[in-house]
Design brief:
Blueprint lengths: L1 E9 L9 H14 L3 E3 L4 E4 L2 H15 L5 E9 L7 H14 L1
Antiparallel strand pairs: 1-3, 1-4, 2-3
Helix pairs in contact: 1-2
């Protein structure tokens, strides 16, 4: 299973609206989880089973909570039983298609 998620606080009281430190706290949880992962400008994607992925999402959300009065979570999952290594394989298939 692949789970792409974005978690951010609101009500931070910051004049500049930055959520960098909060996002870094969430990404730290992800990286320490040991699950395959990739972070880009909008989402962090992790790969694992239901329990492992949702445990990481929950802990990442909890890590963001102290940074604001609310937390927003956006989540998308690709559930494909019997397939692993899709974090990179899906991108590789698209790249091959672009070459052809």
């Amino acid at each position: 299973m692949l789970v792409a998620f974005s978690v951010a606080p609101s009500g931070t009281g910051r004049e500049d609206g930055s959520v960098t430190e909060a996002v870094a706290a969430a990404v730290k949880v992800v990286r320490e989880s040991g699950l395959p992962n990739r972070t880009d400008a909008m989402f962090t994607t992790i790969e694992g089973d239901w329990d492992a992925c949702f445990d990481v999402v929950k802990r990442a959300t909890e890590a963001v909570a102290p940074f604001g009065s609310r937390v927003s979570l956006v989540l998308k999952a690709d559930i494909r039983p019997g397939h692993t290594g899709q974090l990179t394989a899906k991108v590789e298939r698209v790249e091959r298609a672009l070459e052809g």
